[in-house]
């Protein structure tokens, strides 16, 4: 007779764990008997270095996949459009082309997400600059981010 094997359980990927708030990480670790120092070490290994110069964050493929995991279809549609036009477009043009209503929540969600995942309170996905001549906000993504996102959109 074969011994009973219990394959039930919970699996949390390293990237998913690293994207959790510190309080959630600590609760998971406490439940399995590990300390918060373990969580800090794991987070440092899982996420890219969040240091950046002024301008949009440069995502690699792994980070882009993690970034898109919980994005809404509307957000993904906006990001896809940004990528399709080479990563630079005016906010007015996006709203007119996609005709999907207000994008205020999309812009705020992108900023909140990138800052949470990187731990950098100044990180941005899109750099917005006012164009006095056209009287519009022009947005620009980092070229590496455009390339990485296109792999998953």
Helix-strand makeup class: mainly alpha
Task: Give the total of domains.
Answer: 2
- Please tally the helical runs, counting DSSP H or I stretches of 4 or more residues: 8
Strand content: 5-15%
Please write the string of helix (H) and strand (E) elements. Answer: HHHHHEHHEEH
What is the spatial order of strands in the main beta sheet? 1-3-2
Quickly name the level 1 CATH class of the largest domain. Answer: Mainly Alpha
**What is the straight-line distance between the termini?**
49 Å
How would you sum up the global shape?
elongated
Helix content range: 40-55%
The pLDDT mean sits at 80
Find the count of extended strands (DSSP E, 2+ residues). Answer: 3
CATH topology of the largest domain: Arc Repressor Mutant, subunit A
Nearest-angstrom radius of gyration?
Answer: 19 Å
Q: What summary fits the major beta sheet?
A: 3 strands, antiparallel
Stretches where pLDDT is under 50 for at least 5 consecutive residues are 44-51
CATH architecture of the largest domain: Orthogonal Bundle
Structure commentary:
With 153 residues, the protein is mainly α. It folds into 2 domains: 46 residues, no CATH class; 100 residues, Arc Repressor Mutant, subunit A, CATH 1.10.10. The protein is built from 8 helices and 3 strands. The protein has a 3-stranded antiparallel sheet. It starts with 13 loop residues before the first helix and ends with a helix.
